[in-house]
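Worked example 2:
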Amino acid sequence: MQNLQFLDIAVSILLIAFALLAVFTDKAIKSIIYLSILSMVAVVAFSLFRAPDVAITEAVIGSGLVTFIFMITIKSIQKEGDIQ
């Protein structure tokens, strides 16, 4: 029981840490990477809460598709020289 509570607390701290890193990071690419990591930690959290359908959806859409769309957008903006 204590191991499970420790894991819940550790995942919660990681969620908060990566969310703060994503918000307060100066570069857009680093922020996207932190958001992707945040999404993967959320997959672990959903698995711990016994919601495998939500975890799979978060993994596919949150980590995969949204990260891909953000990266494509940043690349197209960088070609114009607007963002670092």
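The chain has a mean pLDDT of 88. The chain has one domain: 2-80.
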